[in-house]
Amino acid sequence: MSDSLMVRIENLHAGYPGKEILRAVSCSFGAGTFTGIIGPNGSGKTTLLRAISRVLPSRGTLELEGQDIRNYSPAELGTRLGFVPQDEARPFSFTVLQVVLMARYARTSRFASLVPEDYDRCHRVLEETGIAHLAGRSIRTLSGGEWQRVLIARALAQDTPVILLDEPTSHLDLAHQVQILSLMRDLAASGKTIIGVFHDLNLAAMYCDRLIMIKDGALVAEGMPAEVLTSAKIRDVYGAEVMISRHPATGRIWLVPVRAEGGQGLCCRPHHVLVISGGGSGTGLLQFLAGRDFSISAGILATTDTDYLTATTLELPVIPVLPFSGIPAHALEKLKGWLRTADSVVLSVHPVGAGNLPVLLALRDCDPARLIIHLPEDRTFQSCDFAKGSAAEVYTALHAAGARCCTTSEEVLCQLLEASQDSHDSLEG
Question: Is residue 265 included in any domain, yes or no?
Answer without folding.
Answer: no
